[in-house]
Amino acid sequence: MGLEVDNLWVLNVSGYEVWITETIFNTWIIMAVLIVLAVAVRIKLRNFETVPKGFQNLAESAIEMFENFTVGTLGKEVSYIAPWFFMVFVFILSSCLFSCFGLRAPTADWATTFALALASFVIMIFMGFKHRKGKYLKSFFEPNVIFFPLNLIGEIAKPVSLSFRLFGNMLSGTIILALYYALTPLFLQIGIPALLHAFFDVVFGALQTYIFVIISFNYVKSAVE
Amino acid sequence: MQDPLAFVIGIAHIAAAIALLNGVTTTFGQAKIAAQAIESIGRQPEAADSIRSLMFVGMAMGETSGIYGLLIAIIMLFANPLVTIMLNYLG
Asked: Complex ipTM, two decimals?
């Protein structure tokens, strides 16, 4: 566990070098776990009953909690984008918890967070055009035409700040833990890092996941209304 | 000045320390947000849920400048473009 992203393999695809980094490999592991979980829920969905118990209770309460959260922030008309943000929520949360196993979290790489932030940005523009049509385009020229460059810079800064926030928080945790592992003798590395992991990965990870999703919601809301 | 590269690296470390100084103001801002939120919850406990979520969003917004400072410090220490320029210049 170091500061930089290690390169595992270099593939050669018709003359181009494709670098398989630690981040991509860890993302594959998380994707595999999440897909297996989703398929398990889908198989169990067949014999769900009207009165939930056990596993069904857990799945239903998770979905219901997120749906209430979406309706509370976005309102009923726009809440049909909740499934995408539920996926983002689960992915970011599990990748933040992933570094508890001593492996590098995918969110501690700017490529991952910028991809997620760019997706939120594209959804924001799409929802703006879908719900307000020409008025959304007009909102760039308000209150006057000469404010257009400022508004454009403000819009472009949104995905950048959204991605840097998550990336900076996760990278700072990774750096502090790497420094701790590098500087302390072996007998201090048993037990004590669990507290640091609990603080920097679990607490900060959960908080930043919540903040990423709620700020994406606010962007979508400001585009729609 | 004996070694220009050592001078550039030393200045980069000082620059990283200065960039991290904005944590002071960021912390003041976040403390003010938390204090105001606690005051509002104490005055109006039934609105605690919405105040709490607003507090988190405001804290995240205020944290952005601190994160930018951290990123500048990390770039200065680990991916400094001036060191490469200096190495090319020295040959």
From this structure: 0.76
